[in-house]
Specification:
binds N,N,N-trimethyl-histidine, 29% helix, oxidoreductase, CTDL_fold, 3-stranded antiparallel beta sheet, single chain, binds fe (iii) ion, EgtB_Actinobacteria, 430 residues, Hercynine oxygenase, 9 helices, alpha+beta
Length: 430
């Protein structure tokens, strides 16, 4: 049984984060285009309200529209991010009022609806989907904050230190495991159904690739040697003029990065972030390894050799607590490798959840038996091989919006997201 108070609390927590991200800057900043690949923050704000209106107020609640006239403006498929500042968008003040009105109605719907009354409402799914949607846009808004120029406006304590240095790799034995889920109540359509997948034995790094390791790749001339890159990757490296992760700059004989408006020396033991799939792949090839496939990543994260079961999270079935993973924008940086020993998987793989999204070498397709629910535009329209998968969530992902089965995807050239990676390699002889 889904507890309505818990659903209400999750909606409220998402809204507090949206408010924090949109009140941190002034109105001029909210309507500004900080990057052609991002929406103005005020678009994300009203879009969050519009999705909530469509699904909770109109669909689940069967209520009259709050603002039918703005659906087109906030349909992500109608206008590209680049074009959104030129639209007659709601002003910041109107957007705040709109999302408040929608929320009041959605809470009323939650109060009255039977959570076993329809497939959409079952287990609070529609509400969970909207909580995740808002949290996903909050992470997108956090990425926009990272691209924004000017004085810092966001504050958070530094992440925890490593309790021990985590390096090296872990052997994942050959065999079948259960990938995806039939039981996770708020899992999205692309995480379903649960299905058995055979995975050959492989080694996976116990921690994500760090800044120090990545700096070694740069120092070894990794950006100038086409043989480390795929053909498409090299073409992109040339065309985009890539020489280091986004936001890195030379600092004497080392490197610094700018994070949310503050510039500092890179921290060597911290997972590298803001790399595209092609950079991740080139690093892995240089290191004599490769990226894990999506089934390999999920097996490393969920498979419990003692029981043969797949867990909800690497540490077990309990939802993330602060001791398990660096999630939810509690910190504005990934934590050093070894900072979350309590979040390790049974096989001893660390920091799979939180810190940085991890690129895996798999294209985005539906699992065998995939069935679209409740709308094609969540995932189905992205199937087909244009997108690479990312797993595990970042420091900017909320606990409500990630789990062992969660699948994220993006174009392989993207790096404004909080994207890193870890390496793997075959263990054919084991
Ligand atoms: C799952 C993160 C790729 O932000 O593009 C937000 C989530 N879908 N609104 C995205 C999403 C519709 C999506 N990702
Ligand atoms: Fe959206």
């Amino acid at each position: 049984m889904t507890d309505k108070n818990k659903v209400a609390a999750e909606l409220e927590r998402a809204r507090q984060r949206t408010v924090l991200l949109t009140e941190a800057v002034d109105d001029a900043d909210l309507v500004r285009q900080h990057s052609p690949i991002m929406s103005p923050l005020v678009w994300d704000l009203a879009h969050v309200g519009n999705q909530e209106e469509l699904w909770l107020v109109r669909d689940v609640g069967g209520r009259e529209p709050v603002r039918r006239d703005i659906d087109e403006l906030y349909d992500a498929f109608k206008h590209s991010r680049r074009d959104r500042t030129a639209l007659p968008l709601l002003s910041p003040q109107e957007a705040r009022k709109y999302v408040g009105q929608v929320r009041d109605k959605a809470m009323d719907v939650l109060d009255r609806v039977r959570l076993d009354g329809s497939r959409l409402a079952a287990d609070g799914f529609a509400f969970g989907m909207i909580v995740q949607h808002e949290q996903q846009h909050d992470e997108t808004m956090l990425a926009t904050h990272q691209l924004r120029l000017g004085a810092p406006v966001l504050e958070a304590p530094a992440p925890p230190q490593a309790t021990s240095k985590i390096t090296g790799e872990v052997l994942v034995p050959a065999g079948s495991f259960t990938m995806g889920t039939d039981t996770e109540p708020w899992a999205l359509d692309n995480e379903r159904p649960a299905h058995a997948v055979h995975v050959d034995a492989f080694y996976i790094d116990a921690a994500p690739t760090t800044n120090g390791e990545y700096a070694d790749f740069i120092a070894a001339g990794g950006y100038d040697e086409p043989s480390w890159w795929s053909e498409r990757g090299w073409a992109h490296r040339q065309e985009a003029g890539l020489t280091a992760p986004q936001h890195w700059q030379r600092d004497g004989d080392g490197w610094a990065y700018t994070r949310f408006g503050r510039t500092q020396r890179i921290i060597d033991d911290e997972p590298v972030v803001h790399v595209c799939f092609f950079e991740a792949q080139a690093y892995a090839t240089w290191a004599g390894k490769r990226l894990p496939t999506e089934p390999e990543w999920e097996k490393a994260a969920r498979f419990d050799p003692a029981t043969g079961r797949s867990r909800r999270y690497p540490w077990g079935d309990e939802p993330p607590e602060t001791r398990h993973a660096n999630l939810g924008q509690r910190h504005l940086a990934p934590a050093p490798a070894g900072a979350y020993p309590e979040g390790a998987s049974p096989l001893g793989v660390h920091q799979l959840i939180g810190d940085v999204w991890e690129w895996v070498d798999s294209d985005f397709y539906g699992y065998p038996g995939f069935s679209m629910f409740p709308y094609e535009e969540y995932s189905q329209v992205f199937f087909g091989g244009d997108y690479k998968i990312l797993r595990g969530g970042s420091f900017g992902t909320d606990a409500a919006a990630v789990r062992g089965t969660f699948r994220n995807w993006d174009h392989p050239i993207r790096r404004q997201i909080f994207s890193g990676f870890r390496c793997a390699r075959d263990a054919a002889d084991v």
